[in-house]
Every structure is written in C-alpha cells, then in structure tokens.
C-alpha cells in the first residue's frame, strides 16, 4: 500500500545475501590472483600490498597473505639497511595495521604471530607498549587465550618481575574464576614448591567450591595434584575434602 515501507521477505533477504557473498568471493579470488601473479623475490607491487591489506582486514586468517607481507618486510629491511628511520616508519605502519586486524578479529593466531615477528625484526621495538596493549585487550576479554600467550612472550622481553605478573593473574581470577586461559597462563608462570603450594591450593579450592560445575579451575587443580611437589598425604587430604 502507498506510504508503507516494503519489508523484504526471508527469501528475498537470502537471495540478496547470496549475491553479496558471491560478490565478495569473486573480489577475493581476483585480489588473490593479482597478488600471487605480482609476487617477486626482489621487489613488490605497492598495489598488491594494498590489496592484501583490504583482504586481511576482512579476513585475517589468510596466512598466505601474512607470509607475503613478511616477504615484503624483508625486502624493506634489505632496502633500508642504511636508512633506519625509513624502515621504522614502514614497520610502525605495519604494526598499526595488525592492531586494526586484531581489533576486527582478536582471536586470529596469524595476526598476533605476525605482530610479534615484526617486533623481532624492528630496530627499536617498544615491548612496554605491547605489554600495555595486552592489558587493554584482556580488560575487554580476559578469555582471549591468544592474547595471554602473546603476553607471556612479551614478558620475556620486558624483564618485568614475575611476582607482579602472578599478582595480575590473581587479580584477573578474582574477577572471574571461570577463565581457562588465565589458569593455563598461571601454570606457565608459577613454580610449585613448599613455599607456594599452599597458596595455590587455597586459590584453586576457593574457585572450585565457588562453582564446582565450571571446568576452568579443575584444570589447574589437576595440574597441582599431579605435581611432584605435593606429598601423597597432602593429596589424599585434599581429595578427601572434596567429598565433604
């Protein structure tokens, strides 16, 4: 009727969605074909590099394109061997680009790996900035296991105190016990011995008693109970307490 907005039917919406998907697939195939055809060992085509950016912003899981960008970066490193400022500008742009990709898809392994690779090839990497970046992303989503893994790599570069990192892990767990990634991260940091064992047992027992149906803390609990530092008598005592 006149004056009324036409609402598309489910079938019409499906047809339009299929058309849009086909258009994207066609553009993707065309872009990939162009990039691969222009791939050379001694130089690169700026247009191909730009197309790879467009594709990765939409789908950062295309690891072939990250490998292509590594090739380009290595060319730039060789080209700018006596022009460090130019190289730094290029690499900083690439870091900005990876941050856009992480923002769009924070759980893409290829993007995090590429970012770390850039920094390892950077003349003056700012590892403290990466540490802050991890904090930002974990505040948004503290279950992002890729960011936890990346944080562990960065920790080795910054030389930050291990105890401070354990405090951070404890804080995140106190906010949310149901966090498999944080428990796993803690298991990579904590050295169990006579001084630390009781502390860790108290922390994890508190978690499993708070929510016994959540599997996250049980993973860490099992790790402790299977550790060589825990005495047989203590293990038996802990297991008995779970029955009550």
TrEMBL record:
Pfam families xref list: PPTA (PF01239)
GO molecular function, one term: Rab geranylgeranyltransferase activity
GO biological process: prenylation
UniProtKB keywords: Prenyltransferase, Repeat, Transferase
Reactions catalysed: geranylgeranyl diphosphate + L-cysteinyl-[protein] = S-geranylgeranyl-L-cysteinyl-[protein] + diphosphate
EC number: 2.5.1.60
Keyword set includes Repeat: yes
Keyword Chloroplast: no
Gene Ontology CC: Rab-protein geranylgeranyltransferase complex
Similarity comment: family membership: Belongs to the protein prenyltransferase subunit alpha family.
Functional note: Catalyzes the transfer of a geranyl-geranyl moiety from geranyl-geranyl pyrophosphate to cysteines occuring in specific C-terminal amino acid sequences.
PANTHER family per the UniProt record, alphabetical: GERANYLGERANYL TRANSFERASE TYPE-2 SUBUNIT ALPHA, PROTEIN FARNESYLTRANSFERASE ALPHA SUBUNIT/RAB GERANYLGERANYL TRANSFERASE ALPHA SUBUNIT
Name of the protein in its database record: Geranylgeranyl transferase type-2 subunit alpha
Species annotation: Henosepilachna vigintioctopunctata
